[in-house]
């Protein structure tokens, strides 16, 4: 998060995306997401804004489409992996995205956030909910980069963007690996059934 690290993730036969951390200060960083074919030519690259606050990684919002999207979380909580055990309310505002301290092997926690996304250019508001379950799953394999200790983020996302009623838009397992970084493995799932669909794996990782 605080070094100029980047990576490129592929499906079985072609590149699906690219990412790069762009540190801003000792406590703030942006992660840029795009595609290798258009990297560096996008008029308005997509960047998520993260900052470290003590033992928390906070998400304030993201850039895209020539504007900024601010997260305004009304209700959020921390709990055990079951979303219930040891549930503790967290303050509203920016999203508590992940703990800075990696849990012990086989251990983890869950986070839930409910609030509004505000498009700064228009004032448009989108309701959202985000469920995350973070677990230290230990050595995890990748067909291109071998095996590395990893965190698994199982996430579900709901919103009412566009003309759609409020509903689930995303369900996936994302693996972050020590020494490699983001998108080490992404297992997408059907939003309704949870059945595995396409899988993406990190193929290249570097610093710049």
Structure description:
By secondary structure, this protein is mainly β. It has one domain. The chain is built from no helices and 14 strands. A twelve-stranded antiparallel barrel has the order 1-2-3-4-5-6-9-10-11-12-13-14.
Structural class from helices and strands?
mainly beta
Report the count of strand segments.
Answer: 14
Give me the side-by-side strand order of the main sheet: 1-2-3-4-5-6-9-10-11-12-13-14
Between the first and last Cα atoms, what is the distance in angstroms?
13 Å
Q: Give the overall shape.
A: globular
How much of the polypeptide forms β-strand, as a percent range?
over 45%
The mean pLDDT is 97
The total count of helices amounts to: 0
Q: How many strands, which pairing sense, and closed or not: the largest β-sheet? A: 12 strands, antiparallel, barrel
The amount of helix comes to under 10%
Any idea what the radius of gyration is?
17 Å
Domain count, please report it: 1
Helix-strand pattern, N to C? EEEEEEEEEEEEEE
Low-confidence stretches: none
């Amino acid at each position: 998060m605080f070094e100029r690290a980047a990576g490129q993730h592929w499906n079985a036969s072609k590149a699906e995306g690219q990412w790069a951390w762009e540190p801003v200060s000792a406590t703030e960083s942006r992660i840029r997401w795009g595609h290798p074919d258009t990297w560096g030519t996008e008029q308005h690259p997509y960047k998520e804004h993260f900052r470290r606050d003590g033992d928390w990684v906070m998400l304030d919002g993201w850039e895209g489409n020539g504007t900024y999207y601010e997260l305004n979380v009304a209700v959020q909580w921390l709990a055990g992996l079951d979303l219930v055990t040891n549930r503790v309310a967290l303050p509203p505002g920016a999203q508590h995205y992940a703990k800075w301290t990696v849990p012990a092997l086989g251990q983890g926690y869950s986070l839930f956030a409910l609030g509004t996304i505000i498009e700064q250019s228009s004032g448009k508001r989108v309701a959202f909910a985000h469920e995350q379950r973070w677990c230290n799953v230990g050595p995890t394999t990748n067909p291109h980069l071998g095996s590395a200790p990893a965190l698994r983020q199982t996430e579900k996302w709901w919103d009412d963007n566009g003309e759609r009623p409020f509903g689930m838009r995303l369900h996936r397992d994302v693996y972050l690996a020590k020494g490699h970084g983001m998108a080490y493995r992404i297992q997408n799932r059907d939003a309704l059934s949870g059945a595995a669909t396409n899988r993406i794996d990190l193929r290249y990782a570097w610093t710049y």
